[in-house]
Amino acid sequence: MNDDGRRPLVTRYGGNPILVANRWPHTVNAVFNPAAAEFDGETLLLVRVEDRSGLSHLCVARSVDGFTNWVVEPERSLLPLRDGPERFGIEDPRVTKVGDDYLIVYTGYSHGGPLVCLASTRDFRTYTRNGVLMPPEDKDAALFPRQFDGRFALVHRPVATTPQPAAHVWLSWSPDLRHWGDHTILLRAREGAWWDAGKVGLCAPPLLTAEGWLLLYHGVRRTAAGSIYRLGLALLDTERPEVVLARSSEWIFGPEAPYERTGDVDQVVFSCGWLLDEDGDTVRIYYGAADTSVCVATASVSELLAWLSRHNSAEDEIPA
Predict the structure, then answer these.
(1) What's the chain's Rg over C-alpha atoms?
(2) Contact 238, 148 (CB under 8 A)
(3) Cβ neighbourhood burial of 26 (10 Å; 0-12, 13-18, 19+)
(4) Do 89 and 57 meet the contact criterion of CB atoms below 8 Å apart?
(5) What percent of the chain is modeled with pLDDT above 70?
(6) pLDDT at res. 2
(7) Which of 67, 107, 157, 300 could form a disulfide with 201 if both were Cys (CB 3.0 to 4.6 A apart)?
(8) 238 — phi, psi (to 5°)?
(9) What is the pTM of this model?
C-alpha cells in the first residue's frame, strides 16, 4: 500500500488472468512465471508451461498492447534437453537484452537438482544453449543488461544446507559468461517473523533507474497453513551493484485476488519479468499466480523509489 493506506503501489490488471491453461493450443496443466521482452514492436512473454507429465518447457506468447489478444506460438518453444542438466524440465526464465542478443537465464532440473542455465536468441525461434552457469542447488537468476568494467554480473539464489537451511540472493561475476567468481551475498534472507525470512530470490532482471538498479525480489513467509510468496524491493548502486542502497522493510505486493490465493500452489505471486513503458515511469509486472496462470500488474517507478526511500531497512542489515 501507499503511505495513505488506501491506494496500492501495484495495481492488478482488471482482465487478469491474461493467460490460462485451458486457452492453450494443446493440453497442459498450468502456465505461469513468464519472462518478458519487447520484440518486433510487441510484448513477448516466454511462459513456463507445465505439461501433465509434470515437466515444464518455455513457450512464446505475444501481444500488441501487453494486456490482451495474446497469440500463443508453440512452434517457438524452448524445449528441455532430455539428457544432462535439463532432464526433468526447464522453468522460470529471465530475459535480458544485451546488444542484439536476448540472453535467457533459466532453471534446469538435473539429477542433482535445480541449476542455472543460459541460452541466447535473436528471434525467439532458434536458441543457442550456452550451458550451465551455476551448479545445484541454484535458481532465480538473471543477468544485468550491461557489463561492469568488462565483466558480466549475475544475480542468483543458491541454497545453503549448513549450519541451517537458508536461501540468500548472491551476486557473481564473469568475463565471458562461462567462468564465474567473486561470489558474494547481495540480499540476506532475514530471520524470525519477517515477511522475507528464511528464503528470498530475485524476480525480474534488474531495472536501471535514475537512482540505481531497482530490484524486485520475492520473500517467503512460512506459516502454519503453508508458505506465502510476496514481492518487495531493493536498490543497488549504478556502478557498483554489489552495494545495496535500500531494501524494503515491507512487502509491496502479495496474493490477495482469488486467482492468486488458490491454485496448484496456493498463496503465490511470482514475477520473472517486467517492462518499462515509453513514458519512462510505468512498469508492467508480469507474474505467475498460484503456479497456475499468468497475470499482469502496473506500477510507477518514481512512486516505487519514493516509497522505498521511506521504508528502507538496508541500514539495519547484517553485513554479508
Answers:
(1) 18
(2) no
(3) exposed
(4) yes
(5) 95
(6) 62
(7) 157
(8) -60, -45
(9) 0.95
Closest CA to 10 of 303, 289, 267, 309: 303
- Provide the pLDDT confidence category of residue 199 given band limits of 50, 70 and 90: very high
Q: What is the 3-state secondary structure (H, E, C) of 241-296?
A: CCCEEEEECCCCECCCCHHHHCCCCCCEEEEEEEEECCCCCEEEEEEEECCCEEEE
Q: Which three cell numbers stand for residue 33?
A: 512465471
What pLDDT sits at residue 161? 72
C-alpha closest to that of 119 among 137, 100, 102, 98: 102
Amino acid sitting at position 311: H
CA-to-CA distance for 218 and 202, rounded, in angstroms?
Answer: 6
pLDDT tens-digit map of 173-182: 999 999 999 9
> Tens of pLDDT along 6-26?
679 999 999 999 999 999 999
68's grid cell: 490482451
User: For residue 24, what are the contacts with CB-CB under 8 A and spacing of at least 6?
Assistant: 31, 49, 72
Q: Which amino acid is at 203?
A: C
Enumerate the domain spans of the chain.
11-315
Query: How buried is 30 (Cβ within 10 angstroms: 0-12 exposed, 13-18 middle, 19+ buried)?
Result: buried
> In whole angstroms, what is the distance from residue 118 CA to residue 276 CA?
24
Residue listed under C-alpha cell 543497488: 236
Angle at 185 between CA 283 and CA 95, to 5 degrees: 35
Cβ-contact 59, 74 below 8 angstroms: yes
C-alpha cell at 296: 499482469
Which tens digits make up the pLDDT trace of 247-286? 999 999 999 999 999 999 999 999 999 999 999 999 999 9
86: exposed, middle or buried (Cβ count in 10 Å: 0-12, 13-18, 19+): buried
How many angstroms separate the CA atoms of 297 and 16, rounded? Answer: 9
Q: State the CATH class of domain 11-315.
A: mainly beta
